[in-house]
Structure formats: C-alpha cells, structure tokens
Amino acid sequence: MSVQKADVVIVGGGLMGSATAFFLRRRGQSVILLERDQIGQYASGVNFGNVRRQGRFLGQLALANRSWELWKRLPELIDDDLEFIPSGHMRVCYREDEVAELEAYAAAPEAAQLDLKIYRGAELHRRFGFLGPDVKGGSYAPHDGHANPRLAAPAFARAAIRLGAQIEERTEVAEVQKVGADFHVTTTDGRQFQAAQLLITAGAWGQKLSAQFGEPVPLDTHGPQMAVTEPVPYALPTVIGVYTKIPEEVIYFRQIPRGNIVIGGGYRSKPDMLNRRAYVEPRSIINQINQMRRLLPGVGNLNIIRVWSGIEGYLPDSLPVMGPSGTVDGLFYAFGFCGHGFQLGPGVGDVMAELLGTGSTSTPIESFSITRFALPAEQRSQAS
Amino acid sequence: MATARVVIVGAGPAGVRCAETLLAAGIKPILIDENRRDGGQIYRRQPQGFTRDYTTLYGSEAAKARDLHESFDRLRGAIDYRPDTLVWNLTPGQLCCASQGRHSTVDYDALILCTGATDRLMPIEGWQLAGTYSLGGAQIALKNQAVSIGHRVVFMGSGPLLYLVASQYVKAGAEVAAVLDTSPLSLRLKALPKLLARPGLLFTGIKLLAQLYRARVAVHLGIKPLQVMGDAANGVGGVRFTAGNGRTVTVQADAVALGYHLRPETQLGDLAGCTMAFDQASSQWWLATDDAGRTSVKGVYAAGDGSKIRGADAAEHAGRLVALALLEDLQQPVDAGLRDEQQQALAVMDQFRLGLAQAFPWPSEQAKALPDSAIVCRCEMISAGELRRTVNEKGACEVNRAKAFSRVGMGRCQGRYCSQAGAEVIAAEAGVPVQEVGRQRGQAPVKPLSMLTEEVSS
Amino acid sequence: MKGRFVRLAEQGRPTVNLIVDGAPIEALQGDTLMVALLTQGNALRQSEFDTGRRAGFCLMGACQDCWVWTRSGERLRACSNEVRDGLDIVTTQPEATWPLHG
C-alpha cells in the first residue's frame, strides 16, 4: 500500500482547513487536506456570510482584525471573488440598557480599530430610515461587511491547489495514530497519509478526533436557520443584526446586490448527525418573519423563496477550539467556531499556518486553547 | 387504529380516489389542495360562471373527468377538505400549511403525497422571452380560461401532450403555426409493441395526429430546436429549428408552447427524507416506492404523477391502491379483489409508460448542444456557459454544488424548470452519466411564502 | 398594444373593472389576473436580471414567473388569483423606494 507524506495533514475541508492549506503552501509547507464530503459543505458553506468584527468577544478582536486585513486583500490573494462587500454593519437593539452595553463595547480599547459609532433615537432613524420604530439604538461598524459563504471555502481550496496543496474530497478518515514522530492517517477506502503535523479542522466533528487523543470537549451541534427573499431593488447595503438576550429576537439580514435579502437567526435546529443533514424548523421561519417585520417593516410584502440549514459546532463558552494540543506534540486544532467563524476564516488559516510553520503566532489565541476543557488529573483517571 | 390522522396532499385523480377509498373503509382523511377547486391539473375544473361542457373541455377524457368530479362532489362533505392551502414544509408528523396569508400546522400519522407533476423542460436559446409557455400551461390557458397563449402558436417538444394540446387549440379555433416534435418517427415505431399495451390510447394518439394533418397544421418530427426568436420588448417572434431533413426552418409565431412530458413534484417527499430513485426509462429521479406506494419513510406514502409519471388513469388506480396499502398497514381489512384490479391495471400502464418513454425520449443530447449564451435558469437568468464554467473552472460536478456556485436552480421556482436540464449540462460537461451528478435537493418553502403570513393556532 | 392572449370562448361573462399601471382595464369575471392583463397587454412584469419582460410560464403556480404587485406592494401570483373589481395592479416593483437616508 502506498503511503502519501506531507509536512502537514489537515482533516476537514471547511473554510478553516482550506484557508490553512492555502497559507501553509504560501509558507512552503507541503500539505494534504482530507475532506469527507465536499469542500465547505457544512458550516462553512451555509452560514449567513457575516464579515463582522463588532460584537465579538473582545479577546478575539486581534484575530478578527488580522482576518479583516486579509479579507481586504482577498481577490488578489486567492485570485477569486467571494462577493465581499465592506458595506458596514449595524448592531441594533430594542432597549435603552442594551444601548448602554453597545456603548461600553465601542469604548473598549480592543475595539478601537473598528471605528464604532453609536446611533440612537432620531439620529438613528434619520440615518437608517428603514428600521422599525422599536429600534432604540445601534452600533455602526463602517468597515464590517458580508460575503458569499458558498464560494469561500472552495475558492481557498482551489487557490491552495494552485499553490501545490493536495486536496482529497470524499475521503473519510477512519483512524488516526501517532507512530513515533509521525501521524498515520488511514481513510475508509484504505489509503494512508503521514505527516509530522496534524491539524483538525473538522468543525462539528472536531471533537470526535480530539477525543481520540484524550482531549474531549463538550461540543454541541446546531443547525443555523437561514432564509432568503425574492430579489428586490438593491437598496439596503448595511448588514443589520439585533443585539438582544432574548433568543427569538436574534435576527440579522443582509441584501446582496442581486436584490435578495438573506435572513438568519432565531431558533436553531438539531442536526441529524447520522445522515449529516440539518433541517430548517418551520417555527424558525415563522419567527423570522415576525421578527423581520418588527426590524424592517417594509419587508412585509416580500416572499421567502428558500430556506436552508447546516451543521455548526458550538462550545459552551461560545469560543472556538484553536491552537496546539495540550497532550500530543504536532497536533493542532481549529474547530467549533460557534456560528461566527466565517469572518475569522482567512485569519485562522494565516495564524494556524504561522503556528504550524514557526511554532508560535503573533496573534493571541490562548483563550481558545483546548486545554481549557481538560479535566483535572484525578477526574481524568476516573473517566478512563 | 381507526383514529389515525390521515392527510392526503393533492386533490387530483390520485388524491380523490385515495380519499374515496379511505372513506369507504371508514377513515375520514384531511385532503389538502393548493388549488381552489379539485381535479388537479389534468381534470382542472373551470371557474364558476364558465359554461363549456365536459366534451368541449376534456374531449376523449370527458367521461373520466365527469366521473372524478362527481366522485369528489359526493366526498366533499364527508371529508376534511382544505382547498387553497399550500403545504410549504413538513417535519415528522406535522405539515406546515399556508392559506390566504395564514400559517397553521396539521398533525398526521399517515401522509399520502398526491402532489402531481409539472411540465418537464429542456431550455432553448431565447426561451426566457415573454410568450414562451410550458405546454401544460398552454393547455390550462385554454381549459381553465378559454384563451390561447398567442395569436399564432408553435408547439414544440415531445410527448403525447404535444399533440393533445395542439389539437385542442385547433379545435377551439386558435391558430397553430406548427407542431415540432424532437422525437423521430422511427422511435415511435420501435416503441409500438409497448404502446400496444393500451391500444385505445394509442388509437386516440393517432387520431389526434390525423386531426392536425386534416387541419393542415405543419407537423415536423425529429427536429432539433435552435432558438426562440424575438426581442426583449415584444417577446417571442418565432422559432428556428433544424428539420428532420437537415434544413434550418423558421416559423413566425408570437407564442411557443414548450414541453417534454412531465416531471414529478417530489419536494415534500424529499423534505420528509424519502429515498429517491433514478428511473432509467425517463432519465429522471422520483420517489422510491413499493408497488403500492409506500415510500422509504414509515407513514409516508405517494401516488400518482407526484411519485411516478404514468398519467391520469394510472393516478386513479394508484390513488386507490395506496389507500389500500395504508389500510393494510393499519391492520384494517382490505378488499383483495379491488387491490388486484388496481395492480393489474397499473402493470399495463407501466408497460405503456415505458413505450412512451421510448417513443418520445427526453432529449438529453440537447443540453450538450445548447449554446453557451442560452439561458438555463430563467428565474436567475444564468446561462449554459456560466453553468459550464462552474464545472470546468470550479470542479462542480454535482448538481447542488453547481447550484451553489452558479445559482442555477436557486430562484423562485426552486429548480422545477431548470435543474433537470442543468444536470444534463453538468453531466455533458463532466463527461459522466446524468444520474452521477445527483439531483437538486428539495428545500422549503415548496412555493414562495409571504412574509405577511400570520400564525394561527391549529 | 394588442394583447398576447386571445379569447376563444366564454366571452359572455359579466365585466370586472381594475386598474393596471394607472390605467383602467375591463376584464371578465372568472379571469385570472394573468388573463386580464395579457388579453390587453404583452407582459406582466419586468425581469430582475435583464431587460426582458415576463409574461408567466407554467400557469399552474409552479414557476413563479407571473408575480405582480398591488399598488400597496402586496404580491399576487397572476396565474392563480382571479380579478376583483377595484384591484390596482402595478407591473414594476414598488420597493424601488425603500425609505433610505444615507
């Protein structure tokens, strides 16, 4: 049996894996990426498409800023158009105390690069005249925007291939073992791949692999709920999202230049992990319709023409697992981006390539370490 | 389990016969139909106030139409009939309905999908021009509204419906410019042994053709469609095609009726998780069912053209048969004679269906010949060239992937009129058989859902 | 402009009056909106993605090509909605004027 070798084997061909493959090749590392289905099929291809920094955990903004620098350069970087529009992002709320929270966020030193501006009352409704009267205030991020998630991971994968990466779609990993200094990856069709470094970017399936190396994480899976309207004249360039603690009030939308309004938020569904299919819960759509009419009253006459879902991995603290393994040398993770990984994608790829290539990264990612889920030693021995 | 909640979707020939059979066994089904009146498409009832008689409306099928309508009229008060109601989505055990701007849910223990079919389309350069209609649409215009789709109409495509609608147009006094069939006579002759399974129907077909010739309508067989001519402002101006003898012919017309037989409406079954099967004879995917109409999902059944294209007569038998299958599954007594009768009739119709598929084949080769400039997806206005580029440059050799990259199938019609042809374009470009490029997955809502929709408790 | 559709029978029905793009038209009771508009004009709406006009396609509520608008912006599928007295139909999209500022 022939064994294929590279500096790095990546398991999982979503945006994180594809972007890392691309940036690894730019650093001259040889890389093999294994994807069980098609590139970008699950969370990466079905998300809302928010290229948003504001509202993130402040400790994640350094990573988001690094990613934003890459988004700006993307067409030349990967020679492909992901329909990225730095349209501005408006985070709105329905209550005065929430406006105060948006203000506090905008004032944080970590958010300085975002150039956030708080709008409220009459000024808000003058500037964003299409918003409903319930909207009390909002935080405007002029540099944030949106892009087409269906195109992103495959475009990074193609760019990586052009630089010499080996990408194997429809290739499912059956077994991973560390043998000496190398990882031996066997696929269900019997092929073998070997590398000194292994990166797990398997999204909602990431924890299955991390658990094999003694690092289980409490990953949960959710199906995002997305809908799109018929096309109407392009007039709403700003991405709008509601800031609230009430789950059913969570709603966000963006209009694409072709005219369709893409809507997400509200309830999530439980994916069918066995058949790898996630459905849209009808009540989500009804809720979205109600919430959209509150947020954007003019939308009432439109028709929803299509809805979709996907499979996303969530951690209980809403932060991803990203960085080196706590137990195995040469093993790295970047998964579980909790429904907000799209904007981070290019940055994660760049940081992970840097980390794998040099052993460290200039961007702080300690908060995302898998070791935060490590059990104390005595509990670990009880569990085993 | 006499209290099983049974829901039938679709009040065409399959749905009505199914409801009738269930009611006879003491089960009162809910019958949900998107149309305002029963009959489905083929036996569509004209609006109130119209006066044409059954023979004028349904020709040789008048007796069947009348019988179905009268059966329904007898049933109507005894079942829970909900017209003008769209089932736009479902979850296991529950249907999501929208009717007149109101949303409600309907619980079910057994669901019988009698969702019917639409025209099956192969694009042609210029088919997005105003004045191009589906063949079935042209028939509905006449049957339901007593209008012709144009002053001078070309009928193009293949299949028995082509001749039926053209002759109905002639009879009603419309001007038929030409009937252009892509299938050559030789295939029809080859299919004769199978078509003889239903000699009556075969004879009706021959009679239709004779009527067209008698009316001096130009009928061309074995043609290759080239273009619907015209311009953006005025729409259709004519049709250009290659005749059987190889010459390029132009016909002036202001309307084109286009269609290649039918494709099933499988979205609800797909959303329910039912397995789909590729039918080699017609080269399309449909719901996989057993002979009686049980899908792969327990409690979900299908009958009529919505699961397997066999025509209206077969739909009536399949509707009865699927009801009997459900009764069996509910451990209720079943009239074995009635069941055998349906099965025997359907066996004959299956044979005939194979003959039709052979005589009037789906013109997959046209997808390959389609110029890059031709529109494949009318909703989103995506050309064959754009779709081919996603195959060549982006490696999208699977229908849903190509849709994600190109938007073919992403528009309002949810791929009803482009995804099959799109699959052929992809397959031709990738050099693989069409069943290997997959099929477009069904997505809710089955039809557009108004954002004015209000929720009502059910 | 002459109509696209041609009436062949059933012409003795009572008339219904509606407005299309600001002009009054007369239709017959039981007409679908599509028939009312296309017996007197040649299209139902502007295509979003090219310069062409659209006049419907399937007539059975499947293709979604024939949606028109009421003056207040409500959507109506022309093949599956009947005419009513006083309907005020427009054949161009009313959202061209979202209340926008900046």
TrEMBL record, chain A:
This is Sarcosine oxidase subunit beta. One of its GO terms (molecular function) is oxidoreductase activity. It holds the Pfam family DAO. InterPro entries: FAD-dep_OxRdtase, FAD/NAD-bd_sf. GO terms for cellular component: cytoplasm. Residues 7-355 form the FAD dependent oxidoreductase domain. It comes from the Bacteria. The keyword Transmembrane applies. Keywords: Membrane, Oxidoreductase, Transmembrane, Transmembrane helix. It comes from Pseudomonas fildesensis. The keyword Chloroplast does not apply. The chain crosses the membrane at residues 6-24.
From TrEMBL, chain B:
CDD domains: GlpA-like_Fer2_BFD-like. Coiled coil: none annotated. Gene3D superfamilies: BFD-like [2Fe-2S]-binding domain, FAD/NAD(P)-binding domain. SUPFAM superfamilies: FAD/NAD(P)-binding domain. Residues 375-427 form the BFD-like [2Fe-2S]-binding domain. Keywords: Oxidoreductase. One of its GO terms (molecular function) is oxidoreductase activity. The keyword Coiled coil does not apply. Residues 5-318 form the FAD/NAD(P)-binding domain. PANTHER family: ANAEROBIC GLYCEROL-3-PHOSPHATE DEHYDROGENASE SUBUNIT B (PTHR42949:SF3). This is (2Fe-2S)-binding protein. It comes from Pseudomonas fildesensis.
UniProtKB/TrEMBL annotation, chain C:
Keywords: Oxidoreductase. This is NAD(FAD)-dependent dehydrogenase. Pfam families: Fer2_4. One of its GO terms (molecular function) is oxidoreductase activity. It comes from Pseudomonas fildesensis. InterPro entries: 2Fe-2S-bd_N, 2Fe-2S_ferredoxin-like_sf. SUPFAM superfamilies: 2Fe-2S ferredoxin-like.
